[in-house]
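Incident log, entry 3
Record: CS domain-containing protein (134 residues)
Problem: checksum mismatch between cached and fresh output.
Input:
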Amino acid sequence: MEVIVDEDLTWEVNREDSMWSLVPGEHIHVNLEKVQERWWEAVLISEEHISVRKIDPSRPITDLDDQAQAKIEEMMFNEEQKRLGLPQSHEKKVHDMLKDAWDSEGSPFRGQPFDPSKINVAPDGGSTINYPST
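Fresh output:
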């Protein structure tokens, strides 16, 4: 057996999730799972290091998984809503929950038309309720 690489890696990898495969006569494919998500200046300690600041990390959104694409779309939506002075997605969710609870059993607002001005929602998620006069 011939040792091809016998050197330390620049950063730690997860050995259980790293693997290699051999394509006979062509190449060895090595997949290293990083322990820490970061750009590497080099794979091996002895290699010449590159400047990670010069790397263009952008990639088409279609290359990302569905969950990542949805998160980016939500962030873009929220940024646009913020720019326009409109409620962001998390604020809309709170609004929808309040609207659902408005007419629920035990609500002091039961039977009244929904009026969000009676509830002040703070940016941290806390709220103040202006109870109706009795």
